[in-house]
Design a protein that fits this description.
six-stranded mixed barrel, eight-stranded mixed beta sheet
Length: 659
């Protein structure tokens, strides 16, 4: 084979390798969680739409999103006390950026192949000035809808041990992993009783204690039953009061009821909550270890009915009023205990009454109408809505979701990718399985979605709000690609559970929400952006002595009461930043190493094949040459003999020739 043929083969191999890696990098884009609205290399090609995998995933594997999940959760209503163990199941849908086989249909790319190598959740925490006014106890919220899939706070348990717990207004339970947990994530954020002094150390509640709920032992999750009260004993430790938390997707956590000191927003007190001794692989996340439920007491039986932590704070007079409020932005927020903070929102608060105020379970309000840019959309199920900070997206019933999708496709097909690709209308970014590369100009062509709540409360979501922005650097070029993912999903049979829709993080990141449990109402106002909130809070100074802006029982510290015993220094933040930058650089170089190694490997394989073929050909020609040489030698000798014989015959026939 000629040298030019080998060059052609090598060139074709290199082109194939580069094309394949570029394809894989597109399919497995890494979402950049660091907020950066600058788009590099904006394109005019049709949208690339990325299928989302259902099922909660471990954040240690996401994102490289670190697999950041998009989790939704719905706690089923409790009907009767005797059904608590059977019915107290949280049904939750999870939307992750998980990873199966690459799936692409022309310009559609599955959402499950979006990944994030985000460090936003690590760098999102900031240490604030100790000179800020504290009107009510406030705690900084970390996480985000895209960066983590939920919001969480740092809870100080016992003697300064930090546990990350999800801020969840859709449940009433608080639970943290214990050091004895047999299969919890192996990191430092597990509560260890032995690290606290004996004098202040809490306890695990015995199964025969009066605290442990009587007549609750009728579940397979109970290890045994107490002889005196038929209480549910822990399956992991039969001598302790059982704690069980189950979810509709199969995830679970179980352990024991504990009584221990906690610190929230610099308020320290002892309370009862769940200590996890065993959980399923899908329960605990890398950034979030446990849960901090803020709903009503009817949801706090697991199976022993405990007073929810916030209710306990109210009953003990640790907060001024039975009110809390939440500000949540893309990556940060504020939890305000005892009231609201007018520095965190614009305009005035508008209130809508809670449904079932006499026996409340969720924060549920009446939804009178849903409109799209002022036009009524006839949704089959939209009469009630649960406001849940533990749900990532807005969740509709399947019928309502399909009705909204049909309306969009009937009026806004000018937006790329909305009305399907490859002749299939289901291959659309309105399908929850896909995300799309869309220009900002196309986003502006989409309509507002308005939720009309009782008492003329109007909640407006602009396209920028419900088309969630996911930044993803192309691994080959390094350019930032901005995917848009619809922040609305559906749950089949949602209406059968007594709820028509769930208003989760997609809405709550835009609205400051006040949970007024005294007057059984929810208040809404447009939330200020985090950059403005941070600036206002940093500029606010503590009042001089004699002022009454700060409650005597409340510490005059930062409204972002970091419960960490050793706040990060600037040097540590710098090291973290440098480390993250180094990882980013290493990641980009790693791609080129793979490309180079692929080219070198292909060249080496082709070279070996070429050498083998060359040697075979040379050996074959060598054998042919030897055969031809032997043949020529034999022919030469025969010719010489013939010539000699011919000469002798000629001489004998000539006359006068001497004998």
């Amino acid at each position: 084979m000629s040298l030019s043929c080998w060059n052609i083969i090598l060139f074709a191999t290199v082109i194939f390798v580069v094309f394949h890696i570029n394809y894989v990098s597109t399919m497995h884009s890494v979402v950049n969680g660091v907020s950066n609205n600058k788009r590099l290399g904006a394109s005019t090609h049709p949208p690339t739409i990325v299928p989302i995998k259902s099922g909660r995933m471990d954040l240690s594997n996401v994102f490289d999103f670190s697999r950041r999940q998009w989790a939704t959760k719905l706690v089923e209503r409790l009907q009767k006390q005797e059904d608590i163990l059977l019915e107290n199941v949280t049904s939750r849908l999870s939307w992750n950026f998980g990873y199966d086989k690459p799936r692409k249909v022309q310009n559609l790319v599955s959402k499950r192949h979006l990944m994030e190598k985000s460090v936003s959740s690590l760098n999102g925490k900031q240490n604030w000035s100790q000179k800020n006014i504290v009107r009510f106890p406030e705690q900084q919220i970390l996480g985000g809808v895209v960066s983590v899939g939920m919001y969480y706070i740092e809870l100080d348990v016992g003697c300064g041990q930090i546990i990350h717990v999800q801020v969840d207004t859709g449940s009433s339970t608080m639970a943290v992993p214990l050091s004895e947990c047999v299969n919890c994530k192996q990191h430092d954020r597990r509560y260890d009783f032995s690290k606290c002094p004996n004098a202040t150390r809490g306890e695990k509640i015995p199964c025969d204690s009066d605290i442990c709920g009587a007549n609750t032992c009728y579940s397979s999750y109970c290890g045994s039953c107490s002889a005196s009260t038929a209480a549910c004993c822990s399956q992991v430790d039969n001598s302790k009061c059982g704690f069980i938390l189950r979810y509709g997707d199969g995830a679970f956590a179980q352990g024991t009821v504990i009584h221990e000191t906690v610190t929230i927003a610099n308020i320290t007190f002892k309370t009862y909550f769940g200590g996890i001794l065993k959980d399923s692989p899908s329960f605990e996340l890398t950034e979030v270890d446990g849960v901090f439920g803020l709903a009503f007491p009817l949801l706090a039986c697991n199976p022993t009915c405990l007073t929810p932590v916030f209710d306990d704070m109210v009953q003990k007079g640790l907060v001024e009023r039975d009110i809390f409020s939440i500000h949540s932005d893309l990556e940060n927020g504020v939890l305000v205990l005892g009231g609201s903070d007018d520095r965190l929102y614009d305009g005035t608060l508008e209130y809508s009454p809670l449904i079932n105020a006499n026996e409340p379970e969720f924060y549920e309000v009446e939804c009178e109408e849903v409109t799209v840019s002022g036009t009524n959309v006839d949704l089959p199920h939209f009469k009630t809505a649960v406001v849940d900070s533990g749900t990532t997206l807005i969740i509709l019933s399947l019928d309502s979701f399909l009705a909204l999708k049909r309306y969009f496709q009937a009026h806004y097909c000018n937006v790329s990718g909305l009305c399907g690709e490859d002749g299939d209308p289901d291959l659309s970014w309105f399908d929850p399985d896909y995300c799309a590369l869309l220009e900002d100009s196309e986003i502006r062509q989409l309509p507002n979605i308005e939720f009309h709540l009782k008492n003329d409360v109007l909640l407006i979501l602009e396209p920028e709000d419900y088309m969630l922005k996911v930044e993803s650097p192309n691994l080959l070029t390094g350019e930032i690609e901005i995917y848009r993912c619809l922040g609305i999903h559906y749950m089949q049979h949602l209406e059968r559970m007594g709820n028509d829709m769930i208003l989760g993080g997609t809405l709550l990141q835009r609205y400051y929400t006040v949970y007024d449990r005294e007057q059984m109402r929810l208040g809404f106002a447009k939330a200020k952006r985090w950059s403005d909130v941070k600036q206002v809070l940093d500029e606010t100074r503590q009042p001089e002595k004699g002022t009454d802006n700060v409650e005597a029982s409340q510490p005059s510290q930062s409204p972002f009461a970091s419960t960490s015993p050793t706040p990060r220094t600037n040097e540590e933040q710098g090291e973290l930043s440098h480390s993250s930058s180094f990882l980013d650089i290493l990641s980009s170089y790693r791609l080129w190493i793979v490309v180079g190694a692929s080219i070198v490997g292909a060249f080496a394989i082709l070279s070996v094949v070429g050498i083998i073929l060359y040697r075979r050909r040379r050996n074959r020609y060598a054998h042919v040459d030897e055969a031809e040489a032997a043949s020529l030698t034999s022919t030469g000798r025969n010719d010489q003999d013939d010539i000699q014989l011919s000469t002798e015959e000629s001489s004998s026939l000539m006359p006068g020739t001497r004998a």
